Amino acid sequence: MSKVRIGVVVLLVGILGVGTVSAQQGGGAGTLAGQDYGEIEALYGRYNQGSDFRDAELFLSAFSEDAVIERSDGSSVRGMDALRTEREQRYQGQSGDVGRRHWTGSYLITATADGAKGRAYYVLFDVTTRPPTMTVSGYYADEFVRTSDGWRIKHRVINRDLAGE
Q1: What's the pLDDT score for residue 30?
Q2: DSSP letters of 1-15?
């Protein structure tokens, strides 16, 4: 092979290598690496288990400081202080297993210019009955933001499946 061809091959390999590393680091707008997907999916787990085991800190760790949750009944909670207050009122000083399980799946996560968006189905089970009883289902529509502490939910809309629809 001539020196020119070797030089061109080396140059192309170098360019492709730099492009691959940039994409894997998730640094460019509109790109997510495997680690990003894993971290975002873990937010669903923090939300679910924080709620199911009345662990306010675990629950809150899924959200950004300026997070918003919108519920299907039209109510909403805005900001970390309001989220914390709501958890305190909901748990009323209790901790531990509340007797329900959130199950989330069919994650669809895509990059956006500002971070990522996602949608996932959820089912809520009452595990105090035998067999466990499904109590509600629906899907989350989420916007995620990368913070200095990692990925967080910035905006969540909780959609419920309604009977007869």
Answers
A1: 79
A2: --HHHHHHHHHHHHH
Which pair of structure tokens corresponds to residue 153? 């939910």
Distance CA 60, CA 47 (A): 7
What are 11-59's pLDDT values in tens digits?
A: 344 444 433 333 334 444 579 999 999 999 999 999 999 999 999 999 9
Buried b (16+ CB within 10 A) or exposed e, 50-76: bbbebbbebbbbbbbeebbbbeeeeee
Distance CA 88, CA 126 (A): 22
Q: What is the pLDDT of residue 163?
A: 67
Q: 145, 114 in Cβ contact below 8 A? A: yes
Contacts of 67 (CB under 8 A, 6+ apart): 78, 79, 80, 83, 152, 153, 154, 155, 156
Count of C-beta atoms within a 10 Å radius of residue 31: 13
Above 90 in pLDDT, residue 83? yes
Give me the amino acid identity at 21: V
Question: Can you tell me whether residue 59 is helix, strand or coil?
Answer: helix
What's the mean pLDDT when you consider all of the chain?
Answer: 86
Q: CA 99, CA 121: separation in Å to the nearest integer? A: 20
Q: What is the DSSP letter of 75?
A: -
